[in-house]
Design brief:
- The chain is built from 8 helices and no strands.
- By secondary structure, the chain is mainly α.
- The longest helix has 29 residues.
- It is flat, with a radius of gyration of 18 Å.
- The mean pLDDT is 90.
């Protein structure tokens, strides 16, 4: 069993390194390929999958994998929106460039909406999971010109940290009381 676990973890690490390489390196260069630029960000999930697999000998459910894939894809596009003009000059044909600012923001809202719905429907820590609907609201607020994208982007680490902290505490308290 240990050898099988090590092989699976080794394959996941290989996949992580492979994605990290082909994201920027020619000839594939996913960074400059519409939709694959954001999908390639699934590599950020791999360390979590390795940790989960290492402690449970199972993979996270498909629902969670799809939810967090949606989250990282949205985050990537959201991060790329301020770079649309720079990417155009550099001839990096990104999802944000392809969609344009308005539709890229809507795309982020849809992806974060999928994330939120998938997590909420799991009923783990419900109703606290309703807090996750802040994510699809962020690009909508930017679209409504309530907050400039650059300002929203600056606050993103604080939003993630606060929500992450809340869920860390909720999960910790749930496990202690179980």
């Amino acid at each position: 069993m240990l050898l099988a676990n090590n092989m699976i973890i080794g394959l996941l690490l290989f996949f992580f390194l492979f994605l990290a390489t082909i994201y920027s390196a020619p000839p594939i260069r996913l960074k400059a390929t519409v939709f694959f630029d954001s999908l390639a960000n699934v590599l950020y999930l791999i360390p979590g999958v390795i940790g989960y697999y290492s402690t449970t000998n199972t993979f996270p459910s498909l629902v969670y994998l799809l939810a967090f894939t949606s989250w990282v894809m949205a985050m990537h596009v959201f991060s790329a929106i301020p770079d649309i003009h720079v990417d155009k000059k550099a001839k990096l044909y990104t999802t944000a460039l392809f969609l344009g600012r308005k539709y890229a923001l809507l795309y982020c809202a849809v992806l974060w909406g999928i994330f939120s719905l998938l997590i909420v429907q799991s009923f783990v820590l419900f109703p606290y999971t309703l807090l996750l609907f802040v994510y699809p609201l962020l690009p909508i607020v930017v679209l409504g010109n309530r907050i400039p994208l650059e300002t929203m982007y600056e606050f993103f680490p604080f939003i993630n940290s606060l929500i992450g902290f809340i869920f860390f505490v909720l999960i910790f308290v749930t496990k202690i009381n179980a």
